[in-house]
Amino acid sequence: MRSIFGPFFKDLALSFSVFFLIIFSVAILNSLDKSPFPLYFVYIFLALGAFWFFSQINFDIVSLFSKHFYIASIILLLSTLIIGRVTRGTFRWIPIGPFSLQPAEIVRPLLLVFFANYLTKGTLNTQKAFKSVGLLAIPVILILVQPSLGVSVLTMVGFFGVLIASKFDKKHLLALGAGVIKNTDLFDSRRRSLGGGLQ
User: Fold this and answer.
1) What are the transmembrane regions (predicted)?
2) Which end of the chain is less enclosed by CB atoms within 10 A, N or C?
3) What pTM does this model have?
4) Nearest of 135, 139, 133, 163 to residue 151 by alpha carbon
């Protein structure tokens, strides 16, 4: 039994944070709309099962497919704009039978695996850091044009979390982050001025 739940005990702070957010989200959603239940609990158990499954895989093995994850992320985001279902003026969902898939949420962990491998492989200098920002800009822009500013911001936060955990010179991190946030804000303002992008 201990071996089954072992992944949840490796990082107690992370596990408690995740379970707190799950309980909090269930309470909020239940107070707003009871219709998603009990199917919502199925999604939670599937997510926990996915967490357990991937925690059993050595990161060195996962990192071998990091480039494939990045390419798959770009393809998924492009597919959303091409075949995605329009909901409230946005292209965020791909219908798959009775279910709807939101690629922007799926690609976030895939992108983090890619950047974790990319930023820790070899020497990390300013040039490589800026190159990684360029690689980040492609999926972020594809998410912004859906439009989904919140998901794009969370994607960037995850990226900078990986960058902070790396050996990158922290003195350059603030300038790098300010530049990315400024450009993201300018892009979103431009999209709004053109009538909401693809709406």
Assistant:
1) 12-32, 38-57, 69-86, 106-124, 136-164
2) N
3) 0.70
4) 139
Q: pLDDT of 115-141, one tens digit each?
A: 988 888 877 777 888 888 899 999 999
What's the N-to-C CA distance of the chain in angstroms? 51
24 and 107 in a single domain? The answer is no
Shared domain for 37 and 75, answered yes or no, is no
Domain containing 122 equals 58-193
Q: Are residues 100 and 183 in the same domain?
A: yes
Residue 199 lies in a domain: no
Distances (CA, A) of 104 to 13, 16, 62, 86, 164: 26, 25, 20, 15, 23
Q: Could you report the per-residue pLDDT of 41-62, keeping only the tens digit for each?
A: 888 888 888 877 877 778 788 8
Cα 87 to its chain centre, rounded Å, is 21
Q: Write out the two tokens for 164.
A: 């902070």
The secondary structure element, H or E, covering residue 134 is: helix 126-144
Inter-residue contact 168 to 129 (CB < 8 Å): yes
Q: What is the number of other CB atoms lying within 10 angstroms of the CB of residue 95? A: 12
Please provide the DSSP assignment of 16-51 as one string. Answer: HHHHHHHHHHHHHHHHH-STTTTHHHHHHHHHHHHH
Both 85 and 10 in one domain: the answer is no
Q: What's the rounded mean pLDDT across residues 93-116?
A: 84
